[in-house]
Amino acid sequence: MDVQGSTHISLQDLLATRHYLHKIALFSSPLQRSPLLGLHQSRLRGRGMDFDQVRAYQSGDDARSIDWRVTARTGEMHTKVFHEERERPIFILVEQSAHLFFASTGCFKSVLAAQIASLFAWAGLQHNDRVGGLVFSDTQLQHIPAHRNKHSVLQLLQAIATANQTLQEPMLSETANPLLAALQQARRMTRPGSLIILICNERHLDEDNEHLLRRLNAHAELILVPLSDPLEHHLPALAQASFSMGERSITLDSRAKTLREQWRLRGQAQQNAWQNLAKQLGAPLLPLSTATPVLQQLQALSIAGQVSFTGAP
Fold first, then answer.
1. Which residue has the higher pLDDT, 60 or 90?
2. Same structural domain for residues 75 and 124?
């Protein structure tokens, strides 16, 4: 899964990500709790009718499902698990816009977005969930309906790969924030109880998008995956630095400490905004960078215990 330095990613690369699921548990199974995202259980879903199994009681479980016979026999609290507790639509909202066609190191942010989206898609299928999503760029939105089969995952990965391959030039002019339209579409398409995984540019979080995310969180669960590049957080002291966008260009003296500090504070403000929103929504936050391979970052987040998904607000 080595795509460091890559500007694009192919469908074959995305298909191959399924072979790396054993390296990181994105969702919990009945026998294994995910150290990264926790229980993967919804606080919104109703109780299912199809009995699955009995397991040890965990914080947040519905007290009505406690199996008192097994509890009395073992001396340890147990609860019944129903199929509906672990089967629900996973809606992967993944960006493939010109805003992500950039990296100062490692792979492009658009490649990183495709990788993490494919990992979640394969993990969802493995977990017996319905998987679908929305691939959005600066001008297009492609919806893939959620189904519990491999064909649906392949459709989603094909849409991601196709959108990724069309990214050929950096941004030549300023474009509108594409996240707004994507969130509006997601709100129309997702039903209550869905799990929405948002994979987008870190700098897209603004007041309007934050408002939409709060509305989405009222009827669905969210996992937030903002993507960044080290240059967006730290400006190295490299004398004159030139930045251009179409006919507009600017040259900065990156040796100036005041400029580098302002640059750092702006990047820190973006990180803080995501952290505050995730905390308020009770949503897992997985900030990823182009600087490090995605599996390495997920493993580091898991070990550090920076995120916890228990299904509780």
1. 90
2. no
